[in-house]
Design brief:
alpha+beta, Jelly Rolls, Arc Repressor Mutant, subunit A, 4-stranded antiparallel β-sheet, 11 helices, AraC-bd, HTH-like
């Protein structure tokens, strides 16, 4: 295992206070608290920590959830240290009322939850433009966390098909400027998890994937109309030209500039003879 390294950032995702990826060998955290939920996975090694003066361990096949305002420390449980990824969630995201349950059971042995947390990190590390995708992933993670902690299950206010159609209409109306899952949930009076599940069941793909597809279609139309790739990104709803290019490669296997150039050559026809 290599020496210490640490990377932290704050993505523009509602409910996420900070993301931290770290590798520690000898460093030990002194007792401290956070005003956020600490959602932690270990990728290598193991961690020993005390939470509210009780000893616990964090290992690679578990998810660890530490509640806000409860003292804890942390240190390597193996000579080689540990690698961890952490998402700090605003206190109300999981729910302050579940603090006691998390103190009693901070280690969650749930393979599906572990995979979902890893996928959330992958999206959060993907750069700007993936906020709705991250929100959707986070909603599923939080729903499962609350299930482990005995939190109440929110009820759907509308039939799933109706909820899905209403969300699709909202996404269609906000293709360029985008829409957060939190804002959509408020507009429709529904829990974010219900929105993601209802939409996916009705249309075969999650809301963020639908919105990206609409943006790609809009970008294609603009490029075929002769607009330069540099101007298309913002007009089609992408964060910047790099985000447009990255997404275009994933969907069409080529760059926007090449897509537009090929189309222009076909429109122009063959060069004159002679």
């Amino acid at each position: 295992m290599e020496g210490q390294r640490l990377r932290a950032w704050r993505p523009a995702v509602p409910g996420v206070a900070e993301v931290l990826h770290a590798r520690f060998v000898t460093h030990a955290y002194p007792p401290h608290t956070h005003d956020a939920w600490t959602l932690l996975v270990v990728d290598d090694g193991a961690i020993r920590y005390d939470l509210d003066r009780h000893g616990h361990g964090a290992v690679a096949d578990q998810v660890t959830l530490l509640p806000p305002h409860v003292p804890h420390d942390g240190r390597a449980a193996t000579p080689g240290g540990f690698v961890k990824r952490v998402v700090y969630l605003d206190a109300d995201v999981v729910g302050r009322e579940l603090t006691g349950a998390a103190v009693d059971h901070p280690a969650l042995a749930d393979p599906l939850l572990r995979r979902r947390v890893a996928e959330l990190h992958r999206v959060l590390d993907g750069g700007p433009g993936e906020e709705l995708h991250a929100e959707s992933r986070l909603a599923l993670v939080v729903d499962r966390l609350r299930g482990h902690l005995g939190g109440p299950v929110p009820r759907a206010p509308l039939p799933p098909r109706r909820l899905a159609r209403d969300l699709r209409d909202l996404l269609d109306a906000h293709v360029t400027e985008g829409l957060t899952l939190e804002a959509a949930a408020t507009r429709l009076g529904a829990h974010p998890t219900h929105l993601v599940r209802a939409f996916t069941a009705a249309f075969g793909l999650p809301p963020h994937a639908y919105l990206v597809g609409r943006r790609v279609d809009r970008a294609r139309a603009m490029l075929l109309a002769g607009q330069p790739a540099a101007a298309v990104a913002a007009s089609a709803g992408f964060y910047d030209q790099a985000h447009l290019t990255r997404t275009f490669r994933r969907y069409l296997g080529t760059t926007p500039a090449k897509f537009a150039g090929d189309a222009a050559r076909r429109t122009a026809g063959p060069p004159p003879a002679g």
